[in-house]
Amino acid sequence: MSEEINGGPGPNALRNAMRIMGGEVRKMQKVARKRHREGLVKGPRSYCSVCGDVFDFAIVNPTEQLTGGICAKCKAILAEGFTACITSDAYAFIKSDYLKANGMRGKIVPVSVEAMEKIKEQQRKNGISDEKSSGET
Ligand SMILES: [Zn+2]
Questions:
Q1: What is the pLDDT of residue 2?
Q2: What pTM, to 2 d.p., does this model score?
Q3: I need a surface site. Which of 23, 70, 117, 128 has the fewest CB within 10 A?
């Protein structure tokens, strides 16, 4: 540091300055690259709590967490008075007087895997195709 005091910056000080500037430039390039990577990604912002579909596409930061919601498809079925029974990996829309009487119309109800099996079995017996009762998977 003595060079700076005695008659302007010496060769060491200049080298230091160049090194610092180089580091700044690299840092800026890194930020620009990062912005480019994160800023131009089109992806979903939400996932459906019922069918698991992702929706609400927008330019997003990919590191951002998806928020739970209900997709337009499931919303329409719920609006018809169906109840959505869900497990971690399956779902079924059902409509019954029992559910209606219990204020479950248009609601999302988590059920056990066993209960889901029974619902599916019942629907098969009633001749309701899986596709119709469960929405389009
Ligand atoms: Zn859905």
A1: 47
A2: 0.61
A3: 23
